[in-house]
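Handout, section B. The chain below has 318 residues.
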Amino acid sequence: MARILVTEPIHEAGVELLRREAEVVFSEGRPVAELITEVAPIDGIVVRTAKIGADVIGSLPELKVIGKHGVGYDNIDVDAATRHGVAVVFTPGANSISVAEHALALMLNLANKVSLAHLEIREGRLGPQKRYMGNELNGKTLGLIGLGRIGRHLARCCRLAFGMRVLAYDPYVKESDEVELCSLEEVLREADFLSIHVPLTPETKDIVAARELAMMKPTAFIINTSRGGVVNEEDLYQALRTGKLAGAGLDVFVEEPPRAANPLVQLDNVIATPHVGAVTEEAMERMAVTVAEEVLAVLAGRIPRNLVNPQVLEQKGE
């Protein structure tokens, strides 16, 4: 029977599925690099945010598959996995609705200063009513960087529910019936709310930095539910601190979880959440079941639906 290491807790529906065809072991909060000698041999790994580097992959000769519970797989050394003939699978679409709704929640919260008002009521330092003056989403412009599943769902919500104009920049999307495809510069200049939905790659790192922030309206809000590294945090802090940007809703940071001392989270015009956009009951179950199905497919010799590195199939066919 195959043996699968689950590095962090996942929904029980996924665990039950894995247990039907494999032995499942859990890291119980310990670093994977410390565990591998104790739990080896390992045929598969299911991982959420733990780092699976070349050292881990190279020390598990029986490893056949790494399953990412989620969409962004930048915590897995895919090149190393490919060199060792290890398939990497993931769960695109499983958390799209939850992340899009989280981005929308941040937009509404920022526009209406909900968290600021709540905090100041609780702390007994309520200011004058005009301090909590909000803005309607109705009729405003949503700018998207990235038009994948999450971006498209958010676009539909904003367009249909709030009558928002939606502009999007995505060099990999050539046409769309739902949004206006534009250059990055046009999206930045026109957006009242800018929401980012791209993976962290060398191409997207710091895609929004000082130059891009300077193009935005001083009344605009920025939302990031993708990865911390796509926005330059120092440049964002300076723009927010000096009033060049109205506010930001951030679910992701370069350092996670974010420290209380992070300058960004000290600002009144920032709402921060600890990378929980996909943490809903529904999304967690979908991701767990999907990653379990994909991992088991590889172990059974079947072709998975969501394979990051198809080169491993070519290697096996040689």
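Note. Residues 78 and 101 are 29 Å apart (CA to CA). Compare this with the example in section A.
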